[in-house]
Amino acid sequence: MNFEGLDPGLAEYAPAMHSALDPVLDAHLNPSLLQNVELDPEGVALEALPAQESVHIMEGVYSELHSVVADVGAPVSGSHFDLHEELLWVGSHGGHATSFFGPTLERYSSFQVNGSDDIRQIQSLENGILFLTKNNLKYMARGGLIIFDYLLDESEDMHSLLLTESSTLLVGGLQNHVLEIDLNTVQETQKYAVETPGVTIMRQTNRFFFCGHTSGKVSLRDLRTFKVEHEFDAFSGSLSDFDVHGNLLATCGFSSRLTGLACDRFLKVYDLRMMRAITPLQVHVDPAFLRFIPTYTSRLAIISQSGQCQFCEPTGLANPADIFHVNPVGPLLMTFDVSASKQALAFGDSEGCVHLWTDSPEPSFNPYSRETEFALPCVVDSLPPLDWSQDLLPLSLIPVPLTTDTLLSDWPAANSAPAPRRAPPVDAEILRTMKKVGFIGYAPNPRTRLRNQIPYRLKESDSEFDSFSQVTESPVGREEEPHLHMVSKKYRKVTIKYSKLGLEDFDFKHYNKTLFAGLEPHIPNAYCNCMIQVLYFLEPVRCLIQNHLCQKEFCLACELGFLFHMLDLSRGDPCQGSNFLRAFRTIPEASALGLILADSDEASGKGNLARLIQRWNRFILTQLHQDLQELEVPQAYRGAGGSSFCSSGDSVIGQLFSCEMENCSLCRCGSETVRASSTLLFTLSYPEGSDGDKTGKNCDFAQVLKRSICLEQNTQAWCDNCEKYQPTIQTRNIRHLPDILVINCEVNSLKEADFWRMQAEVAFKMAIKKHSGEISKNKEFALADWKELGRPEGMLLCPSIEELKNVWLPFSIQMKMTKNKGLDVCNWTDGDEMQWGPAGAEEARGVHVYDLMATVVHVLDSRAGGSLVAHIKVGETYHQRKEGVTHQQWYLFNDFLIEPIDKHEAVQFDMNWKVPAILYYIKRNLNSKYNLNIKNPIEASVLLAEASLARKQRKTHTTFIPLMLNEMPQVGDLVGLDAEFVTLNEEEAELRSDGTKSTIKPSQMSVARITCVRGQGPNEGIPFIDDYISTQEQVVDYLTQYSGIKPGDLDAKISSKHLTTLKSTYLKLRFLIDIGVKFVGHGLQKDFRVINLMVPKDQVLDTVYLFHMPRKRMISLRFLAWYFLDLKIQGETHDSIEDARTALQLYRKYLELSKNGTEPESFHKVLKGLYEKGRKMDWKVPEPEGQTSPKNAAVFSSVLAL
């Protein structure tokens, strides 16, 4: 409400607010209202005013029901009926808030909101109440606890707020803008400029925002853009109040007269269909407030400050007989509000009293109010003190409540429903074989379940062996796609939700509560994330790869080593394999094998991910084997190959994965040919006719594995003796077993899936029979104590039914080479170790035990396109490094979702949605056979001078001076860093129906230029790295305005820049990180993310955060340089040398202003002045009078002299 033109007597209320603390009552206060109100010595009311005992209310006619004192002597500045509970909220000019419950106006809560400013508007939400003061927005619980306190700028003068959505708020005042605040993040999201300043009243319909201005105008604004659509010039003086209902807009206000402003007795009414004024409505009171009260008709309530209230129709004539009088204690009415049910009116006067008028004896404030929670009476003061220092003091001094009352645990019958244990359906096999004698049936036990163990099911829809117990509540589209309920939520494809802040506000911790690092999935061809994790958690592979370094530009082993290093450094934050996948896309063999997916195929899930990941598995092992076989070590990377892993004959990948074989080909003429070969993995070969065999024949996994390794098949082959192609019998024998056994499952059709399903069912029945027989033999065990049998200290280890379902894969297998070059394979259990001795003793006799380490599965989900996840058994060394504990645990890795799981879940495959793809078995005590030390292969020589890839060497302009040997950085040295980027793929986004934009996939950036400048010494500010990064991928946008990169700068044929490979510059930055330097820059988080580097937080000094206040906007480097350094940078384009040097100077300025961080309060004042200046200038740097190149700076004289 606008208070201009009100009664001059209001000027007396400010001092009256202070005089209210005097015990003497105000002269305007009616003593009859305070006859039962107790005043403390300070004069503050303690109890609400009781209503008169006999109040006659005529049904349908508004009459006064109750009057109470909210705050004695302090004028009421705001009143509001709670939209969720039966509460009336009142705010005073002294910043105090009081709530009253129900029509009897019993005082519910009372607390101070602001110490000096008045409460200007109140808004109720589901969990609390919003209070708006001059420059403060406070959200408090109904009991008075603060939920958040949002401090606006001191120059703001706010008057109105409007809740547009459940979590979005508009705040307006006397300034020339309206703020949009997100209540979830408590941050300012938008600032809408207002052409006519002074927005003191705001309303909303389904078509417009309505803003009332102090100039007497009402503007209608678009709901999405907040732009003005229409404007009504209602009054020449000022606007007092307005309301909207249906197609009518009614306003009241003040008109300009010769003597000043005068209250206008004509209400201006507008038709929103025609957007024009209709006949003004003349009333018989001086209107200060008006509201539509649409009960039977669209009635208008017009209230004057003196207490007169008149009802009339907005399109009719006002009748003087419809006037009634409110008797305020003070001379003026200050506030007016109508309840949501239209049954109650609330008036607040200038003496702190509230008057409730209703049209029924027992009104309700809302049509459907929830129950209000009342505080319990405090009984602590009535209890005797208990001295805990006295050991002999009896605890019985504290009385225990009597048990004669109903306890909380005594649930009434109305709140509880019986849930009996329903009997499971009788097995069909029992019904088929049953023989009846009279009314009793007899049948043999089919032994399909454990004895005396019945699954506890409460829902009829749950079947007896329902394996989908981990269903999330009612997923979308379950009716259309019933298969979705099979897939557990943690196995579904995870996606990153992008907001206006990108990834900054995405909660990765919700998906990963461990200290292991996940991998982000939005990069092209990131389907291999699960296999990268499998290779990382193989300790010999991890150490071997990180010790490798070569000169090849696109070496998968090098890039995988860099990625493993990031996974080592991360403490739960996700990493991205962008550089590894960039190198992967350049390998010709990968493209020839169809491993490079198009973005459309990857998004739609057109490719068969199971076949794809199995081909990728074979490719990556072969590629790593070839990369590590190259013994040539470049001079620039001397010492990198001196790892204890390497041998002269074969790579360590070959030692770990390779299996030596003899391939024998026997022709029917008797000629036999034997060739030696090796393989890095095996593919399962299933028995013929397995799809037609429905008898449930048992076939151990070990038998299928032996058949697949020692494969025997009939094929056509060339016979040298017959000199033609002949039918031959080809067999394969094993010479040497690998340390890591890799198996591709090849479940690519319904035939193989049925085989797995059938074998799992047979294994389940056999396990039930086995454990049932073991129980029957041990009579000393009570069947009721079945749960004790699953414990390690029990005599028997009997898993539950859930752990036995869908299991065919063993956790361990035993393999032994026979004397006649044969191979024996069998399943190995923990009981075998007790019988045959430990695996180490057996290995001395040629028996090897392999333990399951990882399974990669294909999750079938047609709606999301399917996904690949991995179950990995993480070893002791990884837990020791990350968590400081020594144990082994199975985990589920689903991109950036990591969750510990039970070991049986790793071998349970429900072929309806969870299909096995890859298995990794490792020899026991594998780590003891290899040297697991990691020696950093990156040496200081990478920082020395190197040749440019650009062919136009004579035209190359030197922009940096490489480091000399005496300038090598030390721990804690400062290095200024800046990077520029180009766009490889544009952002993919969709426009919602409400006009907001949702980012589906962010733009893919690639680093184009990296600059590092010296941060100390005589050459401080001079670059020692200024590399342009050559790229072979197509650039869709060079972003020249922001990056300074032009077409041709990254092309070695025509570029005149110092062009290098990404790997070369990456090694320089890795060396700087490993040596412990501190990087200074602006927005380094994004730079390191695109470069794909993991930098410890204590090595990053980002000026974005140094010059930032909480819950305020980030400030650009250009504005900071102008404000603190009086420099005008980034005129036409950005220059990374200029930006890096400016960031260094800003950091020096920060140390100077904050006294090296010892005076944060003084620096806070500096930041406050910075933000005030920024708002005044709209964060824009004034244009320079004369454009000067940053290269004219004196610090570059030595560089240009080159």
Overview of the molecule:
The protein is built from 25 helices and 53 strands. It has 1202 residues and is α+β, with helices and mostly antiparallel strands. Among the domains are: 154-233, Thrombin, subunit H; 654-687 and 697-752, no CATH class; 961-1176, Ribonuclease H-like superfamily/Ribonuclease H (Nucleotidyltransferase, domain 5, 2-Layer Sandwich).
Index terms:
single chain; 1202 residues; alpha+beta; Thrombin, subunit H; Nucleotidyltransferase, domain 5; nine-stranded mixed sheet; six-stranded antiparallel sheet; 53 strands; disordered N terminus; disordered C terminus; poly(A)-specific ribonuclease activity; exonuclease; metal ion binding
In short:
The chain has about 1200 residues and is of the alpha+beta class.
| Class computed from helices, strands and strand pairing | alpha+beta
Question: Which CATH architecture of the domain at 961-1176 is right?
Answer: 2-Layer Sandwich
Nearest-angstrom radius of gyration?
40 Å
* CATH fold title of the domain at 961-1176: Nucleotidyltransferase, domain 5
What's the CATH C level of the domain at 961-1176? Alpha Beta
Tell me the β content. Answer: 25-35%
CATH superfamily of the domain at 961-1176: Ribonuclease H-like superfamily/Ribonuclease H
The major β-sheet equals:
9 strands, mixed
Family: Belongs to the peptidase C19 family. PAN2 subfamily.
Main location: cytoplasm
Protein name: PAN2-PAN3 deadenylation complex catalytic subunit PAN2
Catalytic activity: Exonucleolytic cleavage of poly(A) to 5'-AMP
